[in-house]
């Protein structure tokens, strides 16, 4: 069945990793969000709305969708879908017909988020960007190192077994499945019609200045414009806004106002990936912000398997 195909493709992926491969370009794009396409859409949307191109509505209206102190079961705001999905093949029972954004603190526990954060910390401790933004992609092996990226699995070989355990990967898989099921439930689609896609990765952000464009994570962008395969994007936050770090809030940039999500360990923010959800992340001012971006596509051609140890 599909599970077997995924595993074989995950194994195949591992044996064919190329540090200069397409996954790297994609991971760089998502992290830096130097989303030329997203920015073009942004200026086009904004100039139509008579909003100055800096992108902040003239009156600077900001609304908090989720405060750090909230404990949200399932907050969901429906928004009309953009036309972005029309230029891609549609998949019945999956391609968004209902669009919007949601936040929940009820899918992943804080304790699970802490365990996941420790996986991120251990992996990222092997490398790290010279600038303020580092990534670790357990699927492709991409790890920030200085001003570049290395392939974790090639670079560290069998030592990987000393860094990660089967339990780590099982927890990662379980968390991914639960987030996938929640997205499917909220958008009224079939969970089995969704595929994990790349890049899916851990991020660690701090206030160190950018050294390369890969470190510039704060630009407004649209996921579907940056990576055509994305249909649903989710973020699992692994640290707390205003306790572990300052700045670093997630901002949906709507025509009439900015709507912010304050990260909290265990909080999942999820949304359809089109221009209806133009967004950015504020620069981190102090401390360290950990999160994991988990992306889904409706196109099986762009599906990836869960990471496997060894």
UniProtKB/TrEMBL annotation:
Keyword line: Dioxygenase, Iron, Membrane, Metal-binding, Oxidoreductase, Transmembrane, Transmembrane helix
One annotated GO molecular function: oxidoreductase activity, acting on paired donors, with incorporation or reduction of molecular oxygen
The keyword Aminoacyl-tRNA synthetase appears for this protein: no
Pfam families: 2OG-FeII_Oxy_3
Database matches in PROSITE patterns: FE2OG_OXY
GO cellular component: membrane
InterPro entries registered for this protein in UniProt: OGFOD3 (IPR039210), Oxoglu/Fe-dep_dioxygenase_dom (IPR005123), Pro_4_hyd_alph (IPR006620), Pro_4_hyd_alph_FE2OG_OXY (IPR044862)
Keyword Transmembrane helix: yes
Needed cofactors: L-ascorbate
Segments forming domain Fe2OG dioxygenase: 198-300
Protein name: 2-oxoglutarate and iron dependent oxygenase domain containing 3
Native species: Cyanistes caeruleus
Gene name per UniProt: OGFOD3
């Amino acid at each position: 069945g599909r599970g077997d195909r995924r595993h074989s493709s995950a194994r195949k992926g591992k044996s064919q990793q190329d540090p200069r491969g397409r996954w790297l370009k994609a991971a760089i794009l998502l992290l830096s969000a130097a989303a030329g396409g997203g920015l073009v859409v942004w200026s086009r949307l904004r100039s139509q709305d008579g909003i100055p191109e800096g992108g902040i509505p003239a009156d600077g209206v900001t609304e908090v969708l989720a405060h750090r102190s909230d404990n949200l079961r399932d907050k969901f705001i429906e928004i009309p879908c953009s036309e972005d999905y029309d230029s891609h093949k549609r998949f019945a029972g999956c391609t968004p017909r209902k669009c919007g954004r949601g936040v929940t603190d009820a899918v992943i526990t804080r304790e699970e988020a802490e365990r996941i954060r420790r996986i991120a910390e251990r992996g990222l401790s092997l490398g790290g960007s010279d600038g303020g933004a580092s990534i670790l992609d357990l699927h492709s092996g991409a790890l920030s190192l200085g001003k570049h990226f290395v392939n974790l699995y090639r670079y560290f070989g069998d030592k990987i077994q000393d860094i990660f355990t089967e339990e780590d990967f099982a927890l990662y898989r379980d968390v991914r499945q639960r987030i996938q099921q929640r997205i499917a439930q909220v958008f009224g689609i079939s969970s089995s019609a969704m595929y994990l896609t790349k890049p899916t990765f851990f991020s660690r952000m701090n206030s160190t200045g950018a050294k390369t464009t890969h470190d510039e994570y704060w630009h407004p962008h649209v996921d579907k414009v940056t990576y055509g395969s994305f249909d649903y994007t989710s973020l699992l936050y692994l640290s707390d806004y205003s306790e572990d770090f300052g700045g670093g809030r997630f901002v949906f940039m709507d025509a009439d106002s900015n709507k912010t999500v304050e990260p909290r360990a265990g909080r999942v923010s999820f949304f359809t990936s089109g221009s209806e959800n133009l967004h950015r992340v504020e620069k981190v001012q102090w401390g360290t912000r950990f999160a994991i971006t988990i992306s889904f596509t409706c196109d099986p051609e762009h599906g990836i398997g869960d990471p496997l140890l060894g």
